[in-house]
Design a protein that fits this description.
Blueprint (H helix, E strand, L loop, with lengths): L2 H8 L7 E2 L5 E3 L4 E5 L4 H6 L4 E13 L2 E7 L5 E7 L9
Parallel strand pairs: 1-6
Antiparallel strand pairs: 2-3, 3-4, 4-5, 5-6
Length: about 90
Amino acid sequence: MSDVLNKFWEAGLVNKPADLTEYFWCKTDCDQITWNGENNLEDLFNGDGETYSECIYSEDGDVENFTIYTIGDSCGGSSQVVLDLNKRVYPDE
C-alpha cells in the first residue's frame, strides 16, 4: 500500500481503495468524479479516450493534499478512490 493510502488506512477511513492519485480528475456539477487514465486533459474535458466517470456516493475525507470518495461502480456496487487534490482540474478554466 502506498504512503498516501496508509494515511487513510491509519485514519480508519478506508478499506483498500483504488489509488487514482497519478491521474488528473474533476468533479462535475451532477456529483460525478471523472478521470482520464492517460492524463490527457483534452480527452478528460471531452469525455474521450480513457476517460472514466462514476457517481459520488459520499465524500469521505481529506488527508493532507489527498481526498477520498465512495463512488458507484459499473456493477451496481460501490468502492472508494483516493485522488490527489493537486491534480484536480476545472473544465471552465
